[in-house]
Amino acid sequence: MIEIKNLLPLQELDCQLRDMKRELEDIPARKEEEQTRLQEHKANLGEAEDAMKAEQARIKELELEVQSCRDQIDKYRKQQMVLKSNKEFKAMEIEITNVLTKIRGHEDKELVLMEDVEAARSNVTERRKELEAEEEAVNLDVAELDTRMSGIDAEVSSLEARRAELLGDVPEDMLARYERILQRRDRALVPVEGGICGGCHMKLPPSVAQNILKKADLVSCDHCGRLLYMA
Ligand SMILES: [Zn+2]
Questions:
Q1: Residue 189 Cα to ligand 1 middle (Å)
Q2: Structural domains for the chain
């Protein structure tokens, strides 16, 4: 006598197990996504730092130029001391004034650049804070996923132990058929209600109900292959 309904608790448990295993399989990808979130923030910080370094490099360049102007002036002053005529002295003085004007120009530019560097620096600080906040959030999420993972592991073990108990009196061929269907379908066992298959919702011939009630053999739906029982 075949009572396929006896497999319903097993099916319920197998579906739970399947959901849990799917969730487990998804966890590494979800952890990966968390790292991707972090990468974006790291890239933002990197860009901000590069922008700041570029401004700093421009200041350094200007400082070098100012230094070379000052060297030039020193050179002129030394030359001035050995000049004989007043005319030559004055010409040299004009050269020196020109270089001094150039220095002032550089220094004005430098002041503007220093403000830019400050803005760039506070941008870096902002981006770093964002990254740190994100790191904290990611660490929490990852820890939560790890906790969920060990929770599922424990649940899976206990469900599998329960499953072994349920399998005790199920005939092997029946189990094999049930498992084969469950691999391809959401459910392996479905009820017949009003002459309709509960899996694919197709109309079944009247003989199906009779065959189920005879309990002589497993009865499956001709359309979807799921095993049928009377609701
Ligand atoms: Zn069906």
A1: 10
A2: 4-169 (1.10.287.1490), 171-231 (no CATH)
